[in-house]
Amino acid sequence: MPSPESQWQLLERMLLMRRFEETVQSLAEERAFAGHYHLYIGQEATGAGAIALLRAGDHIATTHRNHGHLIARGADPGAALAEILGRQGGLNRGYGGTFHLTAPELGFLSTSGIVGGAISLAIGGGYAAKQRHDGSVSVAFFGDGALEEGISFEAMNIAALWHLPVIFICENNDAAAWGETRAPSPEISHAAVTLHSIPMALGIEAARIDGSDTSAVTEAVAAAIARCRDGGGPVFIEAMTRQWPGNSQQFPSLATGITDLRMATGEVATERTHRHWYEEGDPVLQLGRKLVAGSADGASRLSEIDGKVRQQMAAALAFALASPLPPPAAALDHVFA
Amino acid sequence: MKITYAEAFLTAIGDAMAADPRVSLIGRPFSLGPTRVLVEGLRARFPDRVSEPPISEPATAALGAGAAMAGMHPFVDLATGAFSFLAFSQLVNEAPVAHYMSGGRLAVPVTYHVTQGVRGAGAPQHSHDMHGHLWNSPGLQILMPANPADAYGLVRAALASRNPSIILSHFKLAGVEGELPEPRGALPLGKAEIKRRGRDVTVVALSLMVQLALRAAAILAAEGIEVEVLDPRTLAPFDEEAVLASVARTGRLVVVDETPLQGGVASGIAGMVAERGFHSLKAPVQRVARADTPVPFSPPMEEFIIPNEAKIIAAIRRVVQVQ
Hey, is the C-beta of B271 within 8 angstroms of any chain A C-beta? Predict the structure, then answer.
């Protein structure tokens, strides 16, 4: 069981991830950047919980829905935001944008926007770890959609055959998996009833967990890391995350508003329209409620953390907006190292 | 002492593995025919660093790219060139874009290899030349050795590079013999070699086409036609200046390549010279390329559509006739 202190730290990180995405959405609504984008709202417990357990030298592969993973690993929110805005001060100097945020110094591989990219690049991280015998692990974060691609089967097969230290974390954010209406895609995409049964057929240890419960995430990922570092081969975790109502359309919207932490302390009532989300879905509120209940000064501590995070995001936004756009001819640089 | 192209190639992988612990081998280079056993020597020397993947080109290519991003220098053999179509997402849309997409922060030092080309009775699905397709994918180094010495030097160059590379070996080169110069080492990338000097016409050729061009040049030398055979050796980076300098001396250009004429490599090189070397030209550029058809199975039909010595000689005669 993680200590209360570490849980407060986790909550702070999850809140930073949430406020980051809320800032991205606000910028999108102001048309401050071009192109499509994906938000990590609703999946914070999985990303923050898993990444908090990694150490230096471990590798991470993520997807088009990567913002949360970068922030969880400690990437600078200002540089991440600047990248989404296409600025020179961005994590990728404006060459990648929202789909491709990466931070090699934090162990991130290339962030592929192609479905099936992360799961397959991650086995390369596992292969590198095994070749070097350095005890590191490689973590792949991907959605349920990745398992619709053939390369995912190939990647898991190789990881199993070669006993690679890879932790496959499937963030299943498909509403259909909860028996809810799937939107926006009307069709079911998987013949398998549970996604973790697919790797099990290859002899990969696999489990399904509640991905919005930080304790469940911590427990499962800690065991997976221990197994991998010990040479036990790959592990697959199907983390069930609740679909955030803001994702129900083609483009995200702040359907549930700017997260109000007073819903966790009881100072503000959960609004009727999205009550299900506020009371059972939102992992930030869920952990907030748990910590507030277990601590005498919880409510004031929560508001203190929120103030700190809001300040951090204000500084990040100021940095990003002040960062210049790249000179057009910079497009010709960095084709080769 | 003479050794074959395939032997030189495997020697280079072994030397690179001995010199650099980050280098490892995934796959079995030259897995067709008697050369398939060559890899066993490397497996005996480096048992933990030689792996045979399942028949999974996409994931194998991705594994190589991911391992390179994590600091290794893997050599990934994808067997027959045409099979790499399965791994095009990785070969053109992951490995070569990752450095750029990261703003220059991530290096991807992976080396891919395929054995490709019209091999004889390969029929449409096993005969593809991949370099035309790949040349349109910025960020990928394309290396095309023509003999054992170049095979050695280009393998070492790829495995020492910080960039993703693909080495393309023509099927018909595997048994070609030649000397391995000492001291052994990496060749520079993007540096053409004049394989034969001549004053009358420049023939630009890579890979197996160099061998065909050299035979054509030997035949024409008996008639007093002096052919310069220029081998760029790497398609990307491409040594434009060497080609232009040679054409400036000879005034005539024949480009030989096994990719189809339409949108192919011969067309790309001819276009570059038309734009940058127009005033050096005394005659229209000739392209000797594969016909724009799939590759047929039956030998006479196959021979009909590919470049050969007779077609190269005919093209050279056409340009030297123009005064």
Answer: no
The answer to whether A305 and A11 have CB atoms below 8 angstroms apart is yes
3-state SS string for chain A: CCCHHHHHHHHHHHHHHHHHHHHHHHHHHCCCCCCCCCCCCCCHHHHHHHHCCCCCCCEEECCCCCHHHHHHCCCCHHHHHHHHCCCCCCCCCCCCCHHHCCCHHHCECCCCCCCCHHHHHHHHHHHHHHHHCCCCCEEEEEEHHHHHCHHHHHHHHHHHHCCCCEEEEEEECCHHHHCCCCCCCCCCCCCCCCCCHHHHCCCCEEEEEECCCHHHHHHHHHHHHHHHHCCCCCEEEEEECCCCHHHCCCCCCCCCCCCCCHHHHCCCCCCCCCHHHHHHHCHHHHHHHHHHHCCCCHHHHHHHHHHHHHHHHHHHHHHHHHCCCCCHHHHHCCCCC
With CB atoms and an 8 Å threshold, state whether A155 touches B62.
yes
Alpha helical stretches, state H, chain B: 5-19, 38-45, 57-69, 88-93, 95-101, 131-134, 148-160, 208-221, 240-250, 265-276, 299-305, 309-321
pLDDT band at A3 (very low <50, low <70, confident <90, very high): confident
User: CB-CB: which of B54, B139, B237 is closest to A157?
Assistant: B54
Q: Is B20 on the interface with A (CB under 8 A)?
A: no
Can you give the pLDDT at residue A271? 76
State the amino acid at position A38 in one-letter form. H
In this complex, do B72 and A131 lie within 8 Å of one another by their Cβ atoms?
Answer: yes
Query: Which of B73, B113, B126, B128 is labelled catalytic?
Result: B126
Stretch 55-94 of chain A: residues touching chain B, C-beta under 8 Å: 59, 61, 90-94
Window A:100-119, CB contacts with B under 8 Å: 100, 102-105, 109-112, 114, 116-117
Instruction: Provide ipTM, 2 decimals.
Output: 0.95
Most distant CA atoms of chain B, gap in Å: 62
Count of beta carbons in the 10 Å neighbourhood of residue B206: 29
Give the sign of the dihedral formed by CA B200, CA B311, CA B118, CA B290: positive
**What is the nearest CA distance from B43 to chain A, expressed in angstroms?**
15
Amino acid at B107: A
Q: How far is A302 from chain B (nearest CA, A)?
A: 36
Annotation marks residue B131 as catalytic: no
- pLDDT tens digits, one per residue of A134-183: 999 999 999 999 999 999 999 999 999 999 999 999 999 875 555 554 55
Interface check B136 vs A, CB under 8 A: no
User: Residue written as tokens 């099979």?
Assistant: B83
Q: Which residue of B has its CA nearest to A164?
A: B63
Distances (CA, A) of B219 to A83, B211, B214, B271, B285: 60, 13, 9, 28, 21
Long-range contacts from A328-336, C-beta under 8 angstroms, 24+ separation: A330/A88, A330/A93, A330/A94, A333/B104, A334/A93, A334/A95, A334/B99, A334/B100, A334/B103, A334/B104, A335/B99, A335/B100, A335/B138, A335/B139, A336/B99, A336/B139, A336/B141, A336/B163, A336/B237
Q: Can B170 be counted among the known catalytic residues?
A: no
Residue-wise pLDDT tens digits, A249-306:
888 999 999 999 999 999 999 877 899 999 999 999 999 999 999 999 999 999 999 9
Which tokens go with A153? 């089967």
